[in-house]
Write a structure and sequence with these properties.
With about 350 residues, this protein is of the alpha/beta class. It is built from 10 helices and 12 strands. Bound molecules: 2-acetamido-2-deoxy-beta-D-glucopyranose (2 copies). This is Glycosyltransferase family 8 protein.
């Protein structure tokens, strides 16, 4: 007969097993899941694609870029900077909002240009973002437009020493979420793929990375459209550069830096969008792939809002501007005040 033991024995065995499990689970939490990189890792010096530390592998993040508008007056209240308020709203929606926050949180990295004030950086940090200052990029482009310098500086998001993750979703600050966006990282179009079809010109401007990711959504071109905006015959060959999935790479970053000096190849008046669309043109060596139509649109309208479009991209604070519809503006404004209310509530909690 098998000795079954007394009930007390059984209980203590169960307790023992539970303790073992708890210890094991704690170890898993400590070492099993990737921790966000330390500031030292973030500040590490040059990293090449081939020698990309294993630490970046499989890591995901969201990146965005904040510059200060040239007309920002000294002594201005931080909240009068619409781009800053929009960045805060985005961080809140990604990390804290009960209806839109990431189900599996990943780092949200905000790159800031040198002239973004310390108080804004502090606020973004206490909101939960990783804030990294980037140097202004100097370039020898004959185009003197200030937007050009800002665009060149924004390209730091591709620099793996600044954004040390393997798969990153870049988002312009001026967009709002209607639902969580975790699953965008699982889209087939966001998998690393090989380089193809490099031409002589590409080779001269190279070297290119061995693999790349560039998944985005077609430029919608107009405010009046149905939901979904399908472009089913794939006639729209340019993507909107407000949102794209990519893989930071030193080769890619340096390739873009070289492209900066050749606007003759691509410039039509929209600096970063033109450059990225040239680098990732269809038939080229690193052609862009389409994200599912339900993730993102520029020039969003009421149809997108009603239909369940996840990301609505518009300078929503410019009321009455032709960039979006009234219902999208109202929706975005409500998210902004939801963000303010959330932080007020947190403050009240900690001070009581
Ligand atoms: C490579 O170039 C060929 C010929 O121009 C074209 O048919 C093909 O689609 C290109 N491949 C990619 C992946 O763009
Ligand atoms: C795109 O997303 C929609 C909505 O989530 C879904 O119904 C559809 O199946 C997706 N399409 C593809 C090709 O995955």
């Amino acid at each position: 007969m098998i000795q079954t033991g007394r009930p007390e024995d059984f209980l203590s065995k169960k307790l023992f097993a539970f303790c073992l499990f708890s210890i094991g689970f704690t170890i898993f939490l400590l070492f099993g899941s990737p921790a966000p990189p330390s500031p030292d890792e973030l500040n590490s010096t040059s990293v090449s694609d081939q020698h990309r530390p294993a630490i970046y592998k499989g890591r995901q993040a969201i990146s965005t870029f904040l510059a200060t508008k040239s007309n920002a007056k000294a002594g201005q209240d931080d909240n009068e900077d619409s781009y800053f308020v929009s960045a805060r709203t985005l961080v809140y929606q990604l990390l804290h909002s009960p209806t839109t926050k990431l189900q599996h949180p990943i780092p949200v990295v905000v790159l800031v240009a040198k002239d973004v004030g310390e108080s804004k950086r502090q606020t973004l940090r206490s909101d939960g973002a990783i804030v990294v200052e980037v140097e202004d990029v100097t370039h020898s482009t004959p185009i003197a437009a200030e937007r050009w310098t800002s665009m060149a500086t924004k390209l730091h998001v591709f620099d793996p020493t600044v954004v040390p993750y393997e798969k990153v979703l870049f988002m312009d600050v001026d967009m709002v979420l209607t639902r969580p966006i975790d699953k965008i990282f699982q889209e087939l179009s966001t998998e690393l793929g090989p380089i193809t079809n490099a031409t002589q010109v590409d080779a001269e401007l190279g070297p290119l990375p061995e693999q790349y990711i560039l998944a985005a959504s077609p430029e919608s071109h107009q405010k009046d459209h149905a939901y979904p905006f399908l472009d089913s015959d794939h006639t729209v060959s340019t993507f909107n550069s407000g949102l794209f999935m990519y893989s930071p790479s030193i080769e890619m970053y340096q390739y873009y830096m070289r492209l900066l000096d050749h606007p003759d190849l691509y410039y039509t008046g929209i600096p970063d969008q033109d450059l990225l669309n040239y680098a990732h043109r269809w038939g080229g060596p690193m052609s862009w792939k389409r994200l599912n139509w339900s993730w993102y649109i520029n020039f969003p309208n009421e149809n997108d809002l009603q239909g369940g479009m996840a990301l609505l991209h518009a300078r929503w604070w410019e009321q009455g501007a032709s960039v979006s519809s009234e219902s999208v503006e109202q929706f975005a404004f409500a998210r902004r005040w939801e963000m303010e209310g959330y932080w007020m509530g947190q403050k009240a909690k900690t001070s009581s």
